[in-house]
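Quick one, T. Sequence first:
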Amino acid sequence: MIGILLHLAGPMQSWGIAAAFNDRDTHRYPTRSGLLGLISAAHGHTRTTPLNEEWGELVLTVRIDRPGVRMSDFHTVGGGRRPEQTVPTSEGKRRSLDTATITSRRHYLADAAFTAALEGPAEVITGIAAALTHPVWAPYLGRRSCPAEAPLLLTPTPIERAAAELDHLPLARTAPRGKDKTTVSVEFVLEAPPGQQEACRSEELPDLPSSFHPHERAHHDRRVYLHTRDLPAALCGGYGTDYLTALHTYLESTTS
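Structure tokens:
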């Protein structure tokens, strides 16, 4: 089994779990369905393209570098237009002027950053890495209005033990203040329990997709394990160019 590493960061992210009707939520870390949607877009798949069955063998591990800040956007569509330009109804007519404005609330994570390891069979991982290197459609972080910042794919050439690298890759956060702060607590999202001696808690998410088809969308439940462990504070790479420099230095040292 080989893997790739992804840097999932941008001004805003939104990883819906129970989004329905006019309230579009976000989970506090990337979902499996959201990440597979990103990969599908990179391959150029449409929503009606059947999901690759081999993607079911992928193992996802997420490191929460920065949890971000939750924000909500009050969203309106269709208001202030002439009668013939209001939003169409399911009957093919137009909404009346007094009901023309459709409102919704859309939730986001602002300034969040995650590092993900995706592992699986060599042929599958190699295909995903190639698609992310030359994506057909721009990768987005759960919602098309949330483009991913570069670099997204940290390992264009798949590596072994990708999940283990999460203990060594620079963290996209600032170092804690104080000389006595030698470690930082970092939360991980695993698809299997950690070692027997390590504490964790679990939760079930309805984010295991079986179809993205607009009329047949279906997800199954997936259990994940949340585990916090201490990493050296020296891994904190900071923000912006400081983080990119630390990341580049690390990747150069491990791949050269």
